[in-house]
Amino acid sequence: MIGQNAEFSPYSRFGFGLVGSLQSPVHAGMGGMESVLTTSFQFNPNNPASASALGQTTFQSSAVTTQLQMRQGDEAKATALFGSSGPLGLAIKKQGGKNTLILGVSPFSNSGFAISRNSELEGIGSVEERYDGEGGLSKAHIGWARTIRSRGYVSAGVSDSVLIQTNTLHLGIQTQYLFGAVSRTSTLNVIDPTFLDHRSVIDMQHRSISPDLGLIYSHLLYARYNDDLSFEKSASFRIGGRFTPQTTLFSEISHLDETTQNLGGIDIPLDTALYIPTESVQGQMPLSWNLGASLIFDHANGRHFGAGVEYTETQWDRVEEGLHSSLRPNGLNWVRSRTFRAGAEWTLGNIELRHPTWGKANYRVGISFIQQPYQIEGSQLVSRTVSGGFSLPLIGSRSMSRLHFGMELGERYTEDAGLNENFTRIHIGFSLMPFFKNNWLRERLYD
Known about the structure:
Porin; 65% strand; single chain; mainly beta
């Protein structure tokens, strides 16, 4: 569907489009963290283990608006404003339970561009080149997550102790179905009507099935309780990761080259120069993994702070040779993609004194540096972002439901600075949880 388009960028004309460009609002505000800064009110569809950290059944959705400014040299400039839906997910979990069922769909890649160039050719005159593309790939996933907890005694006051939770292991696995279609059209129009024009159309449909394995482990570093056995403060160390193995990619690709004549602004087909009917081909989707670590601090007055770093690697260079030639156009090489992320999230303390709405909000900041999987004429595509956001409780709902806001400021460029893009991306979403008197999966007692 055209509605899949979430990026309008000339760089998206390569391969599947721009890969992995959207996150849920909470994780987008933390630089795209996947594994070690989990929350109890929104999960990351890229890591199934994060769903088991939810407090209860959660439905989440979001919308994304992006403003893109493109610049090449000192004179060539353009601006685009567009929007799309973000990840959609449902995690079904009994409050306080150990198991979570995961259902959802989220964007994987996006291909939307419209490029034109006018020039003069000797003996022909003025010509116009146009390059247009649309489509993208999405991920549908279904999975299961489980929490394993262990307990231990910590000292309380001078001579007492308290039995508390000391270690938590979140495990998750999901089946990920990648699907979608991408279309690219190249047109050469000669202004002089005595010359015929040319149009090339490549249509591709892709699908692949792969498992995602996730793990998040949290270890209590210390916890302090007073003589009344009341909690004072604690600190935890958390590590996490996600692994996706290399899997088969099934593609159906067709190619049409034809001569055309532009009449009244409409390209009329005249003759077919080349036609390759839809053919089924196989390739490979790359192995990908993620690893991170964070520190979490909590206080009795409600103050919470967490900060972490993550590294993600996707080995596109190992599957390049197996990809169809339509995914390896001239001037493009698939290379290893690397992502560095750092983020922090916190909640204010002093429950009695803080604002009833903003004082209960969860705030986030983050940064990311992404080496995209494309090398264009020898220069790798690079993205850098700074992000932030917050989550507000929906107090009127009398539940743990929240409204989420995330914002990203970034730039995308090749190392030789051929085309520079600056983008501002705004995420608005929500996560809905049952009202406390209507919790799902809760056993009822009737007299």
